[in-house]
């Protein structure tokens, strides 16, 4: 798109086109680094709240995820002055960071649910929190930005916690592996060990 705006139509100069492409890549890398730095500050503020997820005080409280959403909303009030493509990029990067940090907290060894009922409560809470975070990103994201897929994965992880039938558990795990082929055996074992 940038090349189409700034490069004369019908002009073919391979060495110049190569230099122009390298310059565009440099600008793209600068944009990516600037977005990373913007989000680094926000996520430093959020670190303590991600640390509170999946601890003994997490199950009865909505404070960590509420605070994560409110804090991100505050930061995104500043970010909405970015150009639309850059704003979309920051939103995508932020949702990926939230998704990764949430799953990392879930699969850390902070808590194990002792009963099937406790695992059911946790699964319900996980789905509720995934929906809350998804709703936040839907609210701030411009039309056309996909904010669903990362939180669908979190809901799939919750289904594994919720499942009582071994055959259904096998199907849930298979579906999750199709959606997340890069999940490790260690992460799967940790997810299963959460069930108690």
Automatic annotation (TrEMBL):
GO CC annotations on file: exocyst
Keywords: Exocytosis, Transport
GO biological process: exocyst localization; exocytosis
Domain of life where this protein originates: Eukaryota
InterPro entries (UniProt xref): EXOC3/Sec6, EXOC3/Sec6_C
Record GO terms (molecular function): SNARE binding
Pfam families referenced in this protein's UniProt entry, alphabetically: Sec6
PANTHER family linked: EXOCYST COMPLEX COMPONENT 3, EXOCYST COMPLEX COMPONENT SEC6-RELATED
Similarity comment: family membership: Belongs to the SEC6 family.
Record protein name field: Uncharacterized protein
Taxonomic classification: Eukaryota, Metazoa, Ecdysozoa, Arthropoda, Hexapoda
């Amino acid at each position: 798109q940038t090349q189409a705006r700034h490069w004369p139509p019908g002009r073919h100069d391979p060495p110049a086109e190569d230099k122009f492409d390298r310059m565009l890549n440099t600008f793209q890398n600068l944009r990516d680094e600037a977005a990373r730095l913007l989000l680094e500050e926000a996520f430093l503020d959020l670190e303590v709240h991600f640390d509170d997820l999946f601890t003994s005080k997490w199950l009865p409280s909505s404070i960590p995820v509420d605070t994560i959403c409110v804090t991100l909303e505050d930061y995104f009030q500043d970010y909405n002055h970015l150009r639309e493509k850059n704003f979309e990029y920051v939103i995508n990067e932020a949702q990926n960071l939230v998704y990764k940090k949430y799953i990392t907290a879930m699969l850390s060894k902070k808590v194990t649910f002792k009963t099937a009922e406790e695992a059911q409560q946790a699964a319900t809470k996980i789905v509720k929190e995934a929906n809350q975070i998804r709703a936040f990103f839907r609210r701030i994201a411009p039309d056309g930005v996909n904010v669903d897929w990362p939180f669908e994965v979190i809901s799939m992880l919750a289904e594994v916690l919720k499942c009582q039938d071994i055959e259904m558990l096998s199907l849930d795990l298979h579906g999750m592996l199709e959606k997340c082929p890069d999940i490790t055996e260690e992460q799967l074992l940790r997810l299963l060990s959460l069930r108690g």
